[in-house]
Amino acid sequence: MRIGIDLGGTKIEVLALDDSGHERLRRRVPTPRSDYAGTVATIARLVDETERSVGRCRSIGIGIPGSLSPHTGLVRNANSTWLNDRPLAADLKRALRREPRIDNDANCFALSEAVDGAAAGSRVVFGVILGTGVGGGIVVDGRLLGGANGIAGEWGHNPLPAPHLPGELPGPRCWCGRRGCIETWLSGPGFAADHVRTVADGAGSAVLGGADGADDADASAAVAGGNADARALVLAMRAGEPAALAAFDRYCDRLSRALASVVNLLDPDAIVLGGGLSNVDELYAEVPRRMAARVFADRAETSLLRNRHGDSSGVRGAARLAD
Predict the structure, then answer these.
(1) For 228-248, how does the pLDDT look when each residue is reduced to its tens digit (9 = 90+)?
(2) Exposure pattern of 32-58 as b/e (b: 16+ CB <10 Å)?
(3) What CATH number should be reported for the domain whose range is 120-307?
């Protein structure tokens, strides 16, 4: 039996996974935001409660929204900024009275989907998170690729590749301090913010055709007024609202550019999408066609796949870190 923990910005999820890959227990609790000590205590409590239910587990794996520096052991690059520059590994080892395996949450997602998820059987897998942030992880022959700097797969803080659309340069300010990071365009908040900016500028025209489906008047009104989140934008796009169609067209163009750059460098067998935007069916029709046109090959064989394990993929991958 193995324990996995997914430490997110809004929730902490715990999972007990048996050796056959079956879930024996799963539970979510709110993350104590901006409370580092409370976060450590909550993880320790969840592990204790889990083992009271299923018995002593042979390993504990934890996915975090950042990474551990191989030089200092401190957390870095976490968008849950209260974790940064903290000795999380040492503090959890003390609280748990054993050493957990800790890795980036996108790496955990990629591992889960490569081992027994959508890309099972693929040799090289690039796992992508398109959610509140944008992350990535690389799995080769069933093993995570960490890299010399411990940042393999962190494509979200590369610049958005050319050719640039009007207004893309220098790009929005990212929490990391740079401008125009892929995350500022392809995260859920980035998708919505692009729409808001475009409506405010009075620009944008539809290119895609609307999908069949019932009109969502509330979503369309919010989109037309420049006030919508990613979910409302998708609903309005499906209803044929022009500004939402244009926003989604720009999103597909940007995602295809960003993924094509990964294919040209890594040449994976499969790319698996996770996060809230991975649930948008239209991406799997639009993006592969556009991506293929930018891949430096006579034919693009890389598959673009929806994840198999949904919201549980990250925590399942965390449980497998000790493997």
Answers:
(1) 799 999 999 999 999 999 999
(2) eeeebeebbebbbebbeebbeeeeebe
(3) 3.30.420.40
Three-state DSSP class for residue 296? coil
Q: What are phi and psi of 283, to 5 degrees?
A: -60, -40
Query: What's the CA gap between 17 and 23, in Å, rounded?
Result: 5
Judged by DSSP in three states, 251 sits in helix
pLDDT band at 211 (very low <50, low <70, confident <90, very high): very low
Pairing of strands 124-130, 101-104: unpaired
The DSSP secondary-structure symbol of 157 reads G
Q: For the chain, which residues make up each domain, given as ranges?
A: 2-112+311-319, 120-307
Locate the DSSP E strands across 159-282: 270-274
Strand partners of residue 61: 4, 101
Which CATH number is 2-112+311-319 given?
3.30.420.40
